[in-house]
Write a structure and sequence with these properties.
Helix content: 40-55%
Number of strands: 26
Strand order of the largest sheet: 18-19-17-16-21-24-25
Radius of gyration: 53 Å
EC number: 3.4.21.53
Protein name: Lon protease
Distance between the termini: 129 Å
GO molecular function, one term: ATP-dependent peptidase activity
Subcellular location: Cytoplasm
Number of domains: 6
Bound molecules: adenosine-5'-triphosphate
CATH architecture of the largest domain: 2-Layer Sandwich
Number of helices: 28
Structural class: alpha/beta
Subunit structure: Homohexamer. Organized in a ring with a central cavity.
Strand content: 15-25%
Length: 817
């Protein structure tokens, strides 16, 4: 054997050859200057160590290319390895050996020597120069710095080691020593060993260290995070357990658990769409993991309860018997032929096509004409349940569609709430007062309503709170409104409008006789008693105690009479018969509230009765004109809108242009002022349809020819005196009839609307279609001048309360054209 001392000493032979026993390593690379304990079990390896002990303790340490092979061949051993010395050998009781080896220098196998007992190789020692250049110095410094940095974060590295490493001056040696202290991958370590050029080795090492630092840092971060998480979960678990223990002591545990079981059963039992069921189960799973009393659990529980309480598939059996439906509609309501007819058509189509994707019905009319109650009747006629939602004043989209569940106190919208209340998915859903919705920064409720009412979309209505599609297409929607123009156009577009224009006196009488009286008798506990309203008493109430298009006040007055009789009865049980006569009405209801009959006591100069259309039906509108000495000023008062003012100016211009034919002094406007006033000055009025009335009033004032008191008129006027058509004719004529007017002038073009006027009215009121202002004046004015030349004198005689008490509530009185 060659003297190893000689090689490892400072001899400058770079490539000396040695024969050494080989110890194949599985999972460790031993670097020069590194001391490592090895556990050796394989017989050949043990023998190799034994041989080493006999021969200056030298051994060649090289790694197997594949760790798993037990009996490696030559090809399985890496050629580059480390020549080392065995420092210590310890035989363990199980026959294996623990050896402490120290690396000395690199070596390369040049030959495998045949030996049956152990591996033996011929090795050339690769000595390295200890000289350092600038590059290696720089790299060495970086490595020391990086090592220090690593030591800072990895507390297992001792300060002494850091010190030792900083003291190493020879770059190649530094590389080997540092390499030994890192847990690099085995392939990287072997590569470090195999890199013979020191600078290259240093560079590669530096790269590996940097990477290691990064990985280590990341590793630390993850560990901290996991630890935090673990601590939190453990804390929660601990607290929950504690809470449970406390509750158990107090006996609440069982209740909560029972509630959960009940809820789960409900989810299982409830018939609902797959999507809803999945959501309910998923939320239930969450709920189970929550502390039962927590706020969060309440939110989740509420949501689940909403899901299971909705009528997803529950429905009432719909009756499609048209005769039966007609009977019920007639049973509940007098008259209303057109709406009833339309409703029956609607039901007929529905029975044929099963699912009606047709337009929604919209009943438009003044208050108290039975819009809501006819919708209720439809429900009864078809065997559906009835639900009503008033949209008056709704200004927030969320009221229709709900708030998202993320908001505190969130709830589903009113549609879903109402459905839960009815418990079926096919009720008659009455949306009242669609014209009273408003819009503000919280969104536009009418847009949400569009989705509800559109048959193309409403089969998957998505409430924000539920966040599940709900099928609204089984519902029969009926909407109601007082005025058409106030309904947003896109909504109008989706609905079929049915007008309920208001009742005639005769209709009101019949409604009272056949419906309202019996209803109120029952409501006031007088059923079975003999209560009798004479026909004249009913007319008396209608004429002197109500002035309305519908019958709500009439019903209220009847109710008031019944109430008073009930009181009588309670006082004096003997009395069972109550006769209500025309005379006794004032006993119950006080003095008459309204004057019925002639609007004027005598024909007057400058006073004309016009006809207006308002939200509560038609109205009489008094127009007064006075002339006085002045300079041709035209004054217009009575809170008139721009359109109405302009209309009065047009009327004035027309009169001026016709001074000759009216036999008025053509220069009248230079010497007199004209004042047009429309009383009830506090109520805003607008619209062009009072044009001919104002013109007649001016003409009458200027010619001093009185106007017939029992005549009313409506129509727009052009500068040349043509009479243009107006709207709301039926309401206006009903109002004229109510007011005791005998003759009404209407625009010729409105003749086509006369078919809507009940015969009972047209028999009592003469309706005269007119085309031109000349005709109007012909019908309206006396042919002779009034002898009372200056009407101002009579100012005090004019009954100013001509319209007084006309409407008990100051309504927006809009004249439309
Ligand atoms: N044609 C009729 N036959 C029998 N009763 C009627 C008739 N019209 C109205 N009524 C009765 O008048 C009352 C008022 O009707 P309802 O509440 O339906 O009015 P409405 O048109 O919906 O009013 P609003 O626009 O103010 O909601 C109800 O009690 C109703 O039964």
């Amino acid at each position: 054997m060659i003297n190893l001392q000689k090689i490892l000493g400072k001899d400058h032979l770079h490539h000396s050859k040695l024969i050494l026993p080989l110890l194949p390593l599985r999972d460790i690379v031993v670097f020069p200057y590194m001391v490592a304990p090895l556990f050796v079990g394989r017989a050949k390896s043990v023998n190799a160590l034994a041989d080493a002990m006999n021969n200056e303790k030298s051994v060649f340490l090289s790694i197997q290319k594949t760790a798993g092979i037990d009996n490696p061949k030559e090809k399985d051993i890496s050629t580059i390895g480390t020549i080392g010395t065995v420092l210590q050998l310890l035989r363990l009781p199980d026959g294996t050996v623990k050896a402490l080896v120290e690396g000395k220098s690199r070596g390369r196998i040049i030959n495998f020597i045949k030996n049956e007992d152990f591996f033996q190789v011929e090795v050339e020692s690769l000595q390295e120069s200890e000289v350092s250049d600038t590059e290696s110095v720089a790299l060495s410094r970086s490595i020391v710095e990086s090592f220090k940095e690593y030591a800072k974060i990895n507390k297992s590295i001792s300060k002494d080691l850091v010190q030792n490493i900083s003291n190493i001056e020879i770059p190649s040696r530094l590389a080997d020593t540092v390499s030994a202290h890192f847990a690099f991958k085995i392939e990287d370590k072997q590569k470090l060993l195999e890199t013979e050029v020191p600078n290259k080795r240093l560079a590669f090492l530096l790269e590996l260290i940097k990477m290691e630092i990064e990985v280590f840092q990341m590793d630390q971060k993850i560990k901290v995070r996991v630890k935090d998480q673990m601590e939190k979960t453990q804390k929660n678990y601990y607290l929950n357990e504690q809470m449970r223990a406390i509750k158990k002591e107090m006996g609440a545990e069982d209740d909560a658990a029972e509630e959960l079981i009940e809820l789960e059963n409900q989810i299982k039992r409830k018939r609902m769409p797959r999507e809803a069921a999945a959501k309910a189960r998923q939320e239930f799973k969450k709920l189970k993991q929550m502390t039962p009393m927590s706020a969060e659990a309440t939110v989740v529980r509420n949501y689940i309860e909403w899901i299971i309480s909705l009528p997803w598939f529950d429905r009432s059996k719909v009756r499609n018997n048209l005769d039966e439906a007609e009977k019920i509609l007639n049973e509940d309501h007098y008259g209303l032929e057109k709406p009833k007819e339309r409703i029956l058509e609607y039901l007929a189509v529905q029975s044929l096509v099963k699912k009606l994707r047709g337009p929604i019905l919209c009943l438009v009319g003044p208050p108290g004409v039975g819009k809501t109650s006819i919708a209720k009747s439809v429900a009864r006629a078809t065997g559906r349940k009835f639900v009503r939602l008033s949209l008056g004043g709704v200004r927030d989209e969320a009221e229709i569609r709900g708030h998202r569940r993320t908001y505190i106190g969130a709830m589903p919208g009113k549609i879903i709430q109402s459905l839960k209340k009815t418990g079926v998915n096919n009720p008659v859903f009455c949306l009242d007062e669609v014209d009273k919705m408003s819009m503000d920064f919280r969104g536009d409720p009418s847009a949400a309503l569009l989705e509800v009412l559109d048959p193309e979309q409403n089969y998957n209505f998505n409430d924000h709170y539920m966040d599940l599609d709900y099928d609204l297409s089984e519902i029969l929607f009926i909407t109601t409104a007082n005025t058409l123009p106030d309904i947003p156009l896109p909504l109008q577009d989706r609905m079929e409008i049915i007008r309920l224009p208001g009742y005639t006196e005769y209709e009101k009488y019949n409604i009272a006789k056949d419906f309202l009286i019996s209803k109120q008798i029952k409501a006031n506990g007088l059923k079975g008693k003999d209560v009798n309203f004479s026909p004249n008493s009913i007319y008396n109430i209608i004429r002197h105690y109500t002035r309305e298009a519908g019958v709500r006040n009439l019903e209220r007055e009847i109710s008031s009479i019944c109430r008073k009789n009930a009181r009588e009865y309670v006082k004096n049980k003997e009395q069972t018969s109550f006769r209500i006569t025309e005379k006794s009405i004032s006993k119950f209801l006080g003095p008459p509230k309204f004057r019925y009959g002639q609007v004027e006591e005598k024909d007057q100069v400058g006073i004309v009765t016009g006809l207006a259309w308002t939200q509560v039906g038609g109205e009489l509108l008094c127009i007064e004109t006075l002339t006085m000495p002045g300079k041709g000023k035209l004054m217009i008062t009575g809170k008139l809108g721009d359109v109405m003012k302009e209309s009065s100016q047009a009327a004035f211009s027309y009169v001026r242009s016709r001074t000759e034919s009216f036999a008025i002094n053509p220069d009248f406007y230079e010497t007199i002022d004209i004042h047009i006033h429309v009383p009830e000055g506090a109520i805003p009025k607008d619209g062009p349809s009072a044009g001919i009335a104002m013109c007649t009033s001016i003409a009458s004032a200027l010619t001093h020819r009185p106007v017939f008191r029992d005549l009313a008129m409506t129509g727009e006027i052009t500068l040349r005196g043509r009479v243009l058509p107006i709207g709301g004719l039926k309401e206006k004529i009903l109002a004229a009839h109510r007011g005791g007017i005998k003759k009404v002038l209407i625009p010729k073009e409105n003749e086509k609307d006369l078919k809507d006027i009940p015969a009972s009215i047209s028999r009592q009121v003469e309706i005269v279609p007119v085309d031109h202002m000349d005709e109007v004046l012909f019908h309206a004015l006396h042919s002779k001048k009034s002898i009372e030349i200056n009407p101002v004198k009579h100012d005090r005689d004019i009954p100013i309360e001509i319209m007084s008490g006309k409407t008990e509530t100051p309504v927006h009185s809009t004249i439309i054209n």
